[in-house]
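Module 6 notes. Inverse folding takes a fixed backbone as the condition and produces residue identities as the prediction. Think of it as a translation problem where the source language is geometry and the target language is the twenty amino acids. Below is one complete input and output pair. Work through it position by position during the lab.
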């Protein structure tokens, strides 16, 4: 099994890359997260953002697994499937998607609780996507949640109604001001659950391990990214799932012994949506320009993404945590024409000491920047990595030496074909 995962704060371009390489696989499989993901894919000049559906969906021969480590919102899933069918009529989702019976359900009240907590000053404001992710995962850990497999049990309706009623009451008692009617959200939920029943829901661990035994190739698709990992990210400003390579093993039920290539994706600079430390953040006009040039607005929520220089200590940390074997660098085109580009090589801490690898970022560290010559290239007509300008070659060599892994792909635009295989 190979894995693709984000090494920064998400939105590195995982969707685009997976869509591209999924033709080499029999199965793509999501192992973490839920509808908080937004994986954009451009096909024939049209663009779609996938939330829950794995990015191999456009390959007719590829099976797409929604694995055990994920949290599935039936309402959002139904909308996503209908939208996908509008985007491409030839797709047969019921044939090409397999869902884990053990994946947990996101209830409508989880989403309302997410909004409530984000807006209530008694809680830390994370800047979530308001998809009820933390609420579904916390109920999983509390062992109070419903799973996909439960939708066929005779008491599902009453158990779900009990949870909806109980949580709704909590919101009412808490004074949530804008609260849709319980009947309305319940109906929408149960309709979506009926829709979900059209899909194959099974023990995906067994399905995937059988596939591996038969020599099939699996690509695990990470959502979010290492710096948003619940354990290894910049807690508490993180998501609530395991976003790392180890998370792929537990989220899919596949042994670490079966791991092959681990593709880590990073932008040539950094972005972050939501709150939390961001040492290399650019709060000036230049940052605003990059946001516009790179179209850095959340694929999921439309929020402007925060922009910063490439953060090497955090990237080294992510490469270490995941055992990345190949680096896929995206958005080199967004820095095209910039005279000098910076990379943060280490942090200076409050006591004056230096840190070169780190995942515990605080507001009070000073990024030490190395400035390099920028590049100017005609990426549109470029066919091979050998045509890259010297400055960009130097930038890539510098990263390879610092991270001790090869840059095997360089993405030069959002389109499918805008990528250079470097090795
Ligand atoms: P994901 O969550 O990692 O799949 O990434 P998103 O899809 O949320 O965000 C990445 C954005 O960058 C999308 O709009 C992509 O179409 C776009 N993109 C991906 N690779 C490149 C690239 O190399 N250059 C440019 N300019 N855009 C890219
Ligand atoms: P993809 O897969 C970027 C961020 C949110 C917030 C924090 C917690 O497209 O890279 P959550 O809704 O998960 O409880 O929010 O995590 N976040 C993402 N940022 N890309 C994502 O997914 C994200 N998923 C969650 O902005 O800061
Ligand atoms: Mg995204």
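Target side of the pair, the amino acids:
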């Amino acid at each position: 099994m190979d894995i693709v995962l984000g090494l920064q704060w998400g939105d590195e371009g995982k969707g685009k890359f997976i869509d591209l390489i999924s033709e080499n696989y029999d199965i793509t499989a999501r192992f973490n997260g839920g509808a908080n993901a937004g994986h954009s894919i451009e096909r024939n000049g049209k663009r779609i953002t996938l939330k829950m559906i794995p990015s191999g969906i456009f390959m007719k021969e590829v099976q797409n697994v929604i694995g055990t480590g994920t949290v599935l919102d039936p309402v959002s899933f139904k909308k996503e499937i209908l939208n996908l069918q509008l985007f491409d009529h030839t797709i047969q989702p019921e044939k090409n998607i397999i869902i884990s019976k053990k994946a947990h359900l996101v209830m409508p009240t989880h989403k309302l609780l997410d909004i409530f907590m984000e807006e209530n000053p008694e809680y830390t404001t994370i800047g979530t996507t308001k998809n009820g992710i933390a609420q579904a995962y916390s109920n999983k850990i509390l062992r109070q949640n419903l799973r996909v497999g439960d939708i066929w049990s005779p008491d599902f309706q009453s158990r779900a109604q009990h949870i909806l009623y109980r949580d709704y009451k909590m919101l009412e008692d808490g004074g949530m001001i804008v609260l849709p009617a319980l009947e309305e959200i319940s109906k929408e939920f149960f309709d979506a659950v009926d829709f979900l029943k059209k899909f194959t829901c099974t023990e995906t661990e067994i399905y995937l391990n059988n596939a591996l035994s038969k020599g099939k190739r699996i690509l695990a698709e990470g959502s979010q990214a290492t710096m948003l990992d619940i354990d290894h990210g910049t807690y508490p400003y993180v998501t609530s799932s395991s976003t790392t390579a180890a998370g792929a093993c537990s989220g899919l039920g596949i042994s670490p012994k079966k791991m092959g290539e681990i593709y880590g994706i990073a932008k040539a600079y950094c972005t972050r949506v939501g709150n939390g430390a961001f040492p290399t953040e650019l709060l000036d006009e230049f940052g605003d320009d990059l946001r516009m040039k790179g179209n850095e607005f959340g694929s999921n929520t439309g929020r402007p993404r925060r922009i910063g220089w490439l953060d090497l200590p955090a990237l080294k940390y992510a490469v270490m945590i995941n055992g990345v074997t190949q680096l896929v660098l995206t958005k080199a085109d967004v820095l095209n024409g910039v005279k000098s580009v910076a990379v943060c090589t280490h942090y200076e801490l409050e006591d004056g000491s230096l840190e070169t690898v780190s995942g515990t970022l605080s507001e009070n560290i000073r990024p030490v920047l190395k400035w390099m010559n920028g590049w100017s290239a005609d990426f549109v007509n470029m066919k091979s990595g050998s045509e890259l300008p010297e400055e960009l070659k130097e930038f890539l060599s510098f990263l390879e030496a610092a991270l001790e892994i090869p840059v095997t792909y360089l993405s030069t635009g959002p389109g499918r074909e805008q990528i250079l295989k470097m090795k």
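Reference fact for the lab report: The first strand starts at residue 2 and ends at 6.
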